[in-house]
Every structure is written in structure tokens, then in C-alpha cells.
Amino acid sequence: METLGTEIVSLVLHRMEMKEKIAVRASELMMQFGIRTVTMDDISKDLGISKKTIYQYFKDKKELVNTITSIHLNIEKERFEGTAEESENSVRELIMVSQCLRESMKDMKMSLMNELQKFYPEAWKMYEDFKKGVMLESIIRVIERGQKEGLFRKDVDPYVIAVMRIEQVQTFIMKNLFPKDKYTLYDVQMQLFDHFIHGLFTIDGHQLFNEYTTSNINQNESID
Fold first, then answer.
1. Torsions phi, psi of 221, nearest 5?
2. pLDDT tens digits, residue range 145-174?
3. Using an 8 Å Cβ cutoff, are 118 and 172 in contact?
4. 3-state SS string over the chain?
5. What is the pLDDT of residues 87-138, one digit of tens each?
6. pLDDT at 103
7. Rounded to an integer, what distance in angstroms lies between the CA atom of residue 171 and that of residue 60?
8. Are 189 and 102 spatial neighbours (Cβ–Cβ below 8 Å)?
9. CA distance to 17, 41, 63, 218, per residue, from 54 (Å)
10. Rounded CA separation 39/175 (Å)
């Protein structure tokens, strides 16, 4: 019985490893070439396994995309939730949360987000739920913390500002609102970030943020 139990555990672990391997590699291919461009045949050839093997773990491409989206968002959730623990004050947390927000959307790429929205409604709903949950709550939390610490203005509404910030970042990533030959996405996002944070800070908040900026410049680091 003990041997049978060990064999079952080994089989389960093997299946988990193979499923994760397929999802990870499929994600890399889709990030590089686009979701709709990459077929199940492409994935099987790249991994050196049969398409039948892939279908043992994913009934179709939609389920594969949903799984990849879920894995990505769970990783992002851990990043967002870790910002409060790693930040000694709300100004530092705001810098980290804003970085998570930009990188989370940037990593998915504009084209991938558009594909999810148009062709994979279940995966898009996962993202929308994540945006309205983890992202929104993280920004609200840091604003409320900043208000308690006297570093953020008391007269701003945390919910309104949080929604504005998320939609602002998403809009500029998913839509071509600026000529690419004049502005990079990075340049635009940093302009928006600068405008956003300076509308939040009290005098003490401004001073602390400037200290972080000066410290990072002296260490040849970036706050973005």
C-alpha cells in the first residue's frame, strides 16, 4: 500500500510539472508572437511533445489561456500584497505600488490585453476582477495610510483617485494616444506618475519623496 501511495504521489507531481511546463512555455510564445498567432501545434512542436499530450491537461486553447492568465495574476497579487510589508512609509509604498501597476500592465503588453478583451472573455474577466480587486485595494490602502501618516492630502478621496490612476495607466497602454516617434510609453507613464503623486502629497510628503529621489539618483538607481 505504501508503494502504491508513493507511485500515486509521483504520478500527480509529474502531471503537475508537465501542466506547468506547458503553461509556462505557451505563455512565453504568446508573449512573443501574440495569443491568436500561437497554435496548439506550435506549442507541441516547441516542447517536443504531441498535441494529444497537451489536450490531456487542457481541453482547448481557451482553457490554456485562462490558466496562463490565472498564473500571471496570482504572481502579480503576491507582488502587490508584498508592497506594504516592504515599505517603511506610505511614500515608499506608493512608489512600489505604482511600479507594480505599470509593470503588471506592461508585462501583458498592449496587443495581448486587446486580444484578451476581444477573444477570451473569461480571461479578460479575471483581469478585470484583479484590477477592481487587488490593484484598486492596493492604491486605496496606500492613500489611506498616507493620510494617516500626514504625508498625503486629507481632502482627496482614496477610491476616486485609485480608479482614476488605474484607468489612466490602462488607457495609455492599450490605446495609441501619442505619436510613437515622439513619445515612448515609458516617457508618457512617468509624466502621468509625476502628475499623480504630486497631486497627493502634503509638504512633508513632497519632502520625503524628494529624499527618495535624491537618494536613488546618488546610487544610480531609478524610482520607476
1. -115, 170
2. 999 999 999 999 999 999 999 888 888 777
3. no
4. CHHHHHHHHHHHHHHHHHHHHHHHHHHHHHHHHCCCCCCHHHHHHHHCCCHHHHHHHCCCHHHHHHHHHHHHHHHHHHHHHHHHHHCCCHHHHHHHHHHHHHHHHHHHCHHHHHHHHHHCHHHHHHHHHHHHHHHHHHHHHHHHHHHHHCCECCCCCHHHHHHHHHHHHHHHHHCCCCCCCCCCHHHHHHHHHHHHHHCCECHHHHHHHHHHHHHHHHCCCCCC
5. 899 999 999 998 888 777 665 666 788 899 999 999 999 999 999 999 999 9
6. 78
7. 31
8. yes
9. 13, 10, 11, 51
10. 26
- CA atoms of 109 and 224, how far apart (whole Å): 18
Q: What is the pLDDT of residues 41-66, one digit of tens each?
A: 999 999 999 999 999 999 999 999 99
Entry pTM: 0.79
Instruction: Please name which of 97, 79, 85 lies closest in space to residue 197, comparing C-alpha atoms.
Output: 97
How many CB atoms sit inside 10 A of residue 88's CB?
Answer: 7
pLDDT of residue 25 exceeding 50, the answer is yes
200: which residues sit within 8 A by CB, 6+ positions away?
94, 143, 146, 152, 153, 156, 161
